[in-house]
Design a protein that fits this description.
This protein has eleven helices and 13 strands. By secondary structure, it is an alpha+beta fold. A hairpin with a 7-residue loop joins strand 1 (40-42) and strand 2. The structure holds adenosine-5'-diphosphate and magnesium ion. Residues 1, 139 line the site of magnesium ion.
Amino acid sequence: MRRASCGRSSTEARGERVPLSEFALIERYFRSGGARRRDVILGVGDDAALLATPSGCDLVAATDTLVAGVHFPLGSPPASIGHRALAVNLSDLAAMGGRPAWALLALTIPEADEAWLGEFAAGFAALARAHEVALVGGDTTRGPLCVTVQLLGHVPHGTALTRSGGCAGDALFVSGTPGDAAAGLAVEQGRLAAQAEARAYLRERFLLPTPRLALGERLRGHASACIDVSDGLLADAGKLAAASAVGAELAYDAVPLSQPLLAALGEERARELAFTGGDDYELCFAVHPQDVAGLLTELPPQRWGYTRIGVLRAGAGFAVVRAGTVMEFSHSGYEHFT
Ligand code: ADP
Ligand code: MG
Protein backbone atom coordinates (compact mmCIF):
# COMPACT_ATOMS: atom_id res chain seq x y z
CA MET A 1 0.00 0.00 0.00
CA ARG A 2 1.33 3.41 -0.95
CA ARG A 3 0.64 6.28 1.42
CA ALA A 4 -1.38 9.09 -0.09
CA SER A 5 1.01 11.94 -0.82
CA CYS A 6 -1.54 14.60 0.24
CA GLY A 7 0.10 17.42 -1.67
CA ARG A 8 3.66 16.50 -0.76
CA SER A 9 6.20 16.02 -3.53
CA SER A 10 6.65 12.49 -4.83
CA THR A 11 10.14 12.44 -3.30
CA GLU A 12 8.69 13.13 0.11
CA ALA A 13 6.02 10.53 -0.46
CA ARG A 14 8.69 7.98 -1.35
CA GLY A 15 10.56 9.03 1.78
CA GLU A 16 7.75 7.50 3.84
CA ARG A 17 8.97 4.07 2.76
CA VAL A 18 12.17 2.36 3.73
CA PRO A 19 13.85 3.90 0.70
CA LEU A 20 17.21 2.60 -0.38
CA SER A 21 16.71 -1.08 -0.83
CA GLU A 22 13.24 -2.06 0.13
CA PHE A 23 13.30 -4.67 -2.59
CA ALA A 24 16.69 -6.01 -1.48
CA LEU A 25 15.60 -5.98 2.12
CA ILE A 26 12.52 -8.09 1.38
CA GLU A 27 14.56 -10.43 -0.81
CA ARG A 28 17.22 -10.87 1.84
CA TYR A 29 15.16 -11.23 4.97
CA PHE A 30 11.66 -12.26 4.02
CA ARG A 31 11.73 -14.10 0.67
CA SER A 32 12.23 -17.44 2.37
CA GLY A 33 11.12 -16.47 5.84
CA GLY A 34 9.42 -19.66 6.85
CA ALA A 35 8.47 -23.14 5.75
CA ARG A 36 8.17 -24.19 2.11
CA ARG A 37 4.68 -25.40 1.37
CA ARG A 38 3.20 -27.00 -1.75
CA ASP A 39 -0.07 -25.11 -1.25
CA VAL A 40 1.67 -21.78 -1.90
CA ILE A 41 1.04 -21.15 -5.61
CA LEU A 42 2.67 -17.70 -5.42
CA GLY A 43 4.37 -16.29 -2.33
CA VAL A 44 6.48 -13.19 -1.72
CA GLY A 45 7.16 -11.14 -4.85
CA ASP A 46 3.89 -10.59 -6.66
CA ASP A 47 1.09 -8.18 -5.81
CA ALA A 48 -0.61 -10.76 -3.61
CA ALA A 49 -0.12 -14.34 -2.58
CA LEU A 50 -2.00 -17.19 -4.23
CA LEU A 51 -2.84 -20.05 -1.94
CA ALA A 52 -4.47 -23.41 -2.59
CA THR A 53 -7.09 -23.94 0.06
CA PRO A 54 -7.82 -27.53 1.06
CA SER A 55 -11.31 -28.86 0.45
CA GLY A 56 -13.39 -29.95 3.41
CA CYS A 57 -11.81 -27.33 5.63
CA ASP A 58 -12.81 -23.99 7.07
CA LEU A 59 -10.26 -21.19 6.77
CA VAL A 60 -9.14 -19.78 10.15
CA ALA A 61 -7.73 -16.24 10.11
CA ALA A 62 -6.23 -14.09 12.85
CA THR A 63 -4.18 -10.92 13.07
CA ASP A 64 -2.42 -9.21 15.95
CA THR A 65 -0.22 -6.15 16.21
CA LEU A 66 2.77 -5.60 18.47
CA VAL A 67 3.62 -1.95 19.10
CA ALA A 68 7.05 -1.08 20.51
CA GLY A 69 6.77 0.24 24.05
CA VAL A 70 3.24 -1.12 24.37
CA HIS A 71 3.41 -4.85 23.68
CA PHE A 72 7.13 -5.26 24.26
CA PRO A 73 9.74 -3.07 25.95
CA LEU A 74 11.74 -0.74 23.74
CA GLY A 75 15.07 -2.40 23.05
CA SER A 76 13.70 -5.95 23.25
CA PRO A 77 15.88 -8.56 21.53
CA PRO A 78 14.85 -8.48 17.84
CA ALA A 79 14.61 -12.28 17.69
CA SER A 80 12.06 -12.13 20.49
CA ILE A 81 10.00 -9.52 18.63
CA GLY A 82 9.98 -11.70 15.50
CA HIS A 83 9.08 -14.78 17.53
CA ARG A 84 6.34 -13.09 19.54
CA ALA A 85 4.72 -11.39 16.55
CA LEU A 86 4.07 -14.83 15.08
CA ALA A 87 3.51 -16.63 18.41
CA VAL A 88 0.59 -14.45 19.48
CA ASN A 89 -1.18 -15.28 16.22
CA LEU A 90 -0.28 -18.97 16.39
CA SER A 91 -1.81 -18.97 19.85
CA ASP A 92 -5.08 -17.59 18.47
CA LEU A 93 -5.18 -20.38 15.90
CA ALA A 94 -4.37 -22.93 18.60
CA ALA A 95 -7.35 -21.70 20.60
CA MET A 96 -9.58 -22.38 17.57
CA GLY A 97 -8.19 -25.88 17.15
CA GLY A 98 -6.72 -24.76 13.83
CA ARG A 99 -3.58 -25.75 11.94
CA PRO A 100 -1.61 -22.72 10.71
CA ALA A 101 -0.36 -22.56 7.12
CA TRP A 102 0.37 -19.05 5.82
CA ALA A 103 1.49 -15.77 7.34
CA LEU A 104 1.69 -12.18 6.12
CA LEU A 105 4.00 -9.75 7.84
CA ALA A 106 3.39 -5.99 7.92
CA LEU A 107 6.55 -4.48 9.31
CA THR A 108 7.06 -0.82 10.19
CA ILE A 109 10.65 0.00 11.13
CA PRO A 110 12.38 3.28 11.89
CA GLU A 111 15.41 2.35 9.78
CA ALA A 112 16.79 -0.54 7.76
CA ASP A 113 19.18 -1.80 10.45
CA GLU A 114 20.68 -4.96 8.94
CA ALA A 115 21.71 -6.55 12.23
CA TRP A 116 18.29 -5.92 13.72
CA LEU A 117 16.50 -7.21 10.63
CA GLY A 118 18.64 -10.35 10.53
CA GLU A 119 17.81 -11.28 14.11
CA PHE A 120 14.15 -10.32 13.76
CA ALA A 121 13.75 -12.40 10.61
CA ALA A 122 15.58 -15.36 12.19
CA GLY A 123 13.30 -15.30 15.24
CA PHE A 124 10.24 -15.19 13.01
CA ALA A 125 11.48 -17.85 10.62
CA ALA A 126 12.51 -20.35 13.30
CA LEU A 127 9.03 -20.39 14.81
CA ALA A 128 7.39 -20.37 11.38
CA ARG A 129 9.36 -23.43 10.28
CA ALA A 130 8.65 -25.21 13.57
CA HIS A 131 4.95 -24.94 12.76
CA GLU A 132 5.20 -25.37 8.98
CA VAL A 133 4.06 -21.83 8.31
CA ALA A 134 5.07 -20.20 5.03
CA LEU A 135 5.61 -16.43 4.92
CA VAL A 136 3.71 -15.55 1.77
CA GLY A 137 3.67 -11.76 1.77
CA GLY A 138 3.58 -8.57 3.73
CA ASP A 139 4.43 -4.93 3.65
CA THR A 140 7.48 -2.95 4.73
CA THR A 141 7.27 0.69 5.71
CA ARG A 142 9.26 3.25 7.64
CA GLY A 143 7.93 4.59 10.94
CA PRO A 144 7.86 3.83 14.65
CA LEU A 145 8.53 0.12 15.23
CA CYS A 146 5.33 -1.87 14.86
CA VAL A 147 4.76 -5.44 13.69
CA THR A 148 1.49 -6.88 12.44
CA VAL A 149 1.19 -10.52 11.46
CA GLN A 150 -1.80 -12.02 9.74
CA LEU A 151 -2.04 -15.77 10.05
CA LEU A 152 -4.19 -18.12 8.01
CA GLY A 153 -4.78 -21.77 8.59
CA HIS A 154 -7.45 -24.39 8.43
CA VAL A 155 -9.59 -26.69 10.45
CA PRO A 156 -11.81 -29.57 9.27
CA HIS A 157 -15.19 -28.12 8.38
CA GLY A 158 -17.39 -27.51 11.41
CA THR A 159 -14.90 -28.68 14.04
CA ALA A 160 -13.30 -25.41 15.17
CA LEU A 161 -13.23 -24.65 18.88
CA THR A 162 -14.89 -21.41 19.96
CA ARG A 163 -15.25 -19.40 23.15
CA SER A 164 -18.99 -19.81 23.22
CA GLY A 165 -19.55 -23.56 23.47
CA GLY A 166 -19.23 -23.93 27.25
CA CYS A 167 -22.12 -25.08 29.47
CA ALA A 168 -22.81 -24.88 33.20
CA GLY A 169 -21.15 -27.88 34.80
CA ASP A 170 -18.24 -28.08 32.34
CA ALA A 171 -14.83 -28.59 33.90
CA LEU A 172 -12.33 -25.80 33.25
CA PHE A 173 -8.66 -26.45 32.49
CA VAL A 174 -5.56 -24.41 31.77
CA SER A 175 -2.32 -25.46 30.09
CA GLY A 176 1.13 -24.58 31.40
CA THR A 177 1.91 -22.41 34.40
CA PRO A 178 0.29 -18.97 34.06
CA GLY A 179 2.01 -15.94 35.51
CA ASP A 180 5.48 -16.85 34.26
CA ALA A 181 5.44 -14.42 31.34
CA ALA A 182 4.29 -11.47 33.45
CA ALA A 183 7.09 -12.22 35.89
CA GLY A 184 9.48 -12.52 32.94
CA LEU A 185 8.45 -9.08 31.71
CA ALA A 186 9.06 -7.70 35.21
CA VAL A 187 12.52 -9.31 35.17
CA GLU A 188 13.17 -7.87 31.71
CA GLN A 189 12.21 -4.40 32.92
CA GLY A 190 14.32 -4.68 36.07
CA ARG A 191 11.27 -4.67 38.36
CA LEU A 192 11.81 -8.18 39.71
CA ALA A 193 14.95 -9.67 41.18
CA ALA A 194 15.48 -13.44 41.26
CA GLN A 195 18.20 -16.08 41.21
CA ALA A 196 19.93 -16.39 37.85
CA GLU A 197 18.23 -19.67 36.93
CA ALA A 198 14.72 -18.46 37.75
CA ARG A 199 15.44 -15.18 36.00
CA ALA A 200 16.52 -16.93 32.81
CA TYR A 201 13.47 -19.21 32.81
CA LEU A 202 10.94 -16.42 33.44
CA ARG A 203 12.57 -14.08 30.93
CA GLU A 204 12.37 -16.75 28.26
CA ARG A 205 8.70 -17.36 29.04
CA PHE A 206 8.03 -13.73 28.15
CA LEU A 207 10.49 -13.35 25.27
CA LEU A 208 9.85 -16.70 23.56
CA PRO A 209 6.36 -17.95 24.46
CA THR A 210 5.29 -21.40 23.24
CA PRO A 211 1.94 -21.40 21.45
CA ARG A 212 0.04 -24.61 22.24
CA LEU A 213 -0.84 -25.72 18.72
CA ALA A 214 -0.59 -29.46 19.18
CA LEU A 215 -2.81 -29.29 22.26
CA GLY A 216 -5.32 -27.03 20.48
CA GLU A 217 -5.64 -29.44 17.58
CA ARG A 218 -6.01 -32.44 19.87
CA LEU A 219 -8.69 -30.65 21.91
CA ARG A 220 -11.07 -30.79 18.94
CA GLY A 221 -13.73 -33.28 19.90
CA HIS A 222 -12.88 -32.96 23.60
CA ALA A 223 -13.29 -29.29 24.53
CA SER A 224 -16.64 -27.51 24.46
CA ALA A 225 -14.98 -24.07 24.46
CA CYS A 226 -11.45 -22.71 24.31
CA ILE A 227 -9.59 -19.40 24.55
CA ASP A 228 -5.92 -18.51 24.65
CA VAL A 229 -4.64 -16.76 27.75
CA SER A 230 -3.12 -13.49 26.59
CA ASP A 231 -4.64 -10.93 28.97
CA GLY A 232 -4.47 -13.00 32.16
CA LEU A 233 -6.23 -16.14 33.33
CA LEU A 234 -9.09 -14.36 35.12
CA ALA A 235 -9.74 -11.97 32.27
CA ASP A 236 -9.64 -14.66 29.58
CA ALA A 237 -11.50 -17.38 31.50
CA GLY A 238 -14.03 -14.62 32.15
CA LYS A 239 -14.30 -13.96 28.41
CA LEU A 240 -14.86 -17.66 27.72
CA ALA A 241 -17.56 -17.80 30.41
CA ALA A 242 -19.25 -14.63 29.17
CA ALA A 243 -19.21 -15.85 25.55
CA SER A 244 -20.74 -19.12 26.75
CA ALA A 245 -23.37 -17.17 28.77
CA VAL A 246 -22.36 -18.80 32.05
CA GLY A 247 -20.32 -17.91 35.14
CA ALA A 248 -17.19 -19.64 36.41
CA GLU A 249 -15.65 -20.79 39.65
CA LEU A 250 -11.91 -21.29 39.97
CA ALA A 251 -10.12 -23.07 42.81
CA TYR A 252 -7.48 -20.70 44.18
CA ASP A 253 -5.05 -23.50 45.02
CA ALA A 254 -5.57 -25.49 41.82
CA VAL A 255 -3.86 -23.09 39.42
CA PRO A 256 -0.41 -24.55 38.78
CA LEU A 257 2.66 -22.45 39.55
CA SER A 258 6.13 -22.97 38.17
CA GLN A 259 9.02 -23.44 40.59
CA PRO A 260 10.88 -20.38 39.24
CA LEU A 261 7.76 -18.22 39.73
CA LEU A 262 7.38 -19.49 43.30
CA ALA A 263 11.07 -18.97 43.97
CA ALA A 264 10.99 -15.42 42.62
CA LEU A 265 7.77 -14.23 44.23
CA GLY A 266 6.63 -16.52 47.03
CA GLU A 267 3.28 -18.27 46.86
CA GLU A 268 0.88 -15.38 47.48
CA ARG A 269 2.33 -13.03 44.86
CA ALA A 270 2.99 -15.90 42.46
CA ARG A 271 -0.68 -16.83 42.61
CA GLU A 272 -1.69 -13.22 42.08
CA LEU A 273 0.35 -13.13 38.87
CA ALA A 274 -0.98 -16.54 37.78
CA PHE A 275 -4.50 -15.10 37.89
CA THR A 276 -3.85 -11.64 36.52
CA GLY A 277 -0.58 -11.59 34.55
CA GLY A 278 -0.75 -11.55 30.75
CA ASP A 279 1.32 -12.79 27.79
CA ASP A 280 1.40 -16.50 28.69
CA TYR A 281 -0.29 -17.78 25.50
CA GLU A 282 -1.54 -20.88 27.22
CA LEU A 283 -4.95 -22.42 26.50
CA CYS A 284 -7.93 -22.28 28.85
CA PHE A 285 -10.65 -24.74 27.87
CA ALA A 286 -13.93 -26.22 29.06
CA VAL A 287 -14.95 -29.88 28.81
CA HIS A 288 -18.44 -31.35 29.31
CA PRO A 289 -18.49 -33.60 32.43
CA GLN A 290 -19.24 -36.72 30.35
CA ASP A 291 -16.17 -35.98 28.17
CA VAL A 292 -13.65 -35.45 30.97
CA ALA A 293 -12.70 -39.13 31.34
CA GLY A 294 -12.02 -39.38 27.60
CA LEU A 295 -9.88 -36.25 27.68
CA LEU A 296 -7.80 -37.49 30.62
CA THR A 297 -7.27 -40.86 28.95
CA GLU A 298 -6.49 -39.67 25.44
CA LEU A 299 -4.47 -36.62 26.44
CA PRO A 300 -2.79 -37.50 29.74
CA PRO A 301 -2.45 -34.21 31.65
CA GLN A 302 1.13 -34.89 32.75
CA ARG A 303 2.21 -35.43 29.16
CA TRP A 304 0.15 -32.60 27.67
CA GLY A 305 0.79 -30.18 30.51
CA TYR A 306 -2.63 -28.99 31.59
CA THR A 307 -4.48 -28.78 34.91
CA ARG A 308 -8.10 -28.73 36.06
CA ILE A 309 -8.72 -25.36 37.70
CA GLY A 310 -12.46 -24.96 38.10
CA VAL A 311 -15.93 -25.28 36.67
CA LEU A 312 -18.42 -23.28 34.63
CA ARG A 313 -21.64 -22.60 36.52
CA ALA A 314 -25.10 -21.24 35.79
CA GLY A 315 -25.58 -17.48 35.98
CA ALA A 316 -22.99 -14.79 35.49
CA GLY A 317 -19.96 -13.73 37.54
CA PHE A 318 -16.67 -15.16 38.47
CA ALA A 319 -15.62 -16.59 41.81
CA VAL A 320 -12.27 -17.77 43.10
CA VAL A 321 -12.70 -20.19 46.01
CA ARG A 322 -9.96 -20.40 48.60
CA ALA A 323 -10.22 -22.76 51.58
CA GLY A 324 -14.01 -22.60 51.47
CA THR A 325 -14.03 -18.81 51.22
CA VAL A 326 -15.51 -17.35 48.07
CA MET A 327 -13.72 -14.37 46.60
CA GLU A 328 -15.80 -12.61 43.99
CA PHE A 329 -14.12 -11.11 40.96
CA SER A 330 -15.37 -8.99 38.15
CA HIS A 331 -14.69 -10.32 34.67
CA SER A 332 -12.22 -7.54 34.09
CA GLY A 333 -9.76 -9.12 36.46
CA TYR A 334 -8.16 -9.23 39.78
CA GLU A 335 -9.51 -7.30 42.77
CA HIS A 336 -8.87 -8.97 46.10
CA PHE A 337 -5.28 -10.14 46.29
CA THR A 338 -3.62 -6.93 47.34
P1 ADP B 1 3.14 -3.60 -3.35
O1 ADP B 1 3.58 -2.19 -3.50
O2 ADP B 1 2.51 -4.21 -4.55
O3 ADP B 1 2.35 -3.80 -2.10
P2 ADP B 1 5.56 -4.31 -2.06
O4 ADP B 1 6.76 -3.66 -2.63
O5 ADP B 1 4.97 -3.75 -0.82
O6 ADP B 1 4.48 -4.45 -3.18
O7 ADP B 1 5.89 -5.83 -1.76
C1 ADP B 1 6.52 -6.63 -2.75
C2 ADP B 1 6.34 -8.06 -2.38
O8 ADP B 1 7.03 -8.33 -1.17
C3 ADP B 1 4.88 -8.47 -2.14
O9 ADP B 1 4.74 -9.80 -2.59
C4 ADP B 1 4.74 -8.40 -0.65
O10 ADP B 1 3.75 -9.30 -0.21
C5 ADP B 1 6.14 -8.80 -0.19
N1 ADP B 1 6.53 -8.19 1.09
C6 ADP B 1 6.71 -6.89 1.41
N2 ADP B 1 7.14 -6.73 2.65
C7 ADP B 1 7.22 -7.96 3.19
C8 ADP B 1 7.59 -8.47 4.46
N3 ADP B 1 7.95 -7.68 5.48
N4 ADP B 1 7.51 -9.81 4.65
C9 ADP B 1 7.12 -10.61 3.66
N5 ADP B 1 6.80 -10.21 2.43
C10 ADP B 1 6.84 -8.90 2.20
MG1 MG C 1 3.14 -3.30 -0.25
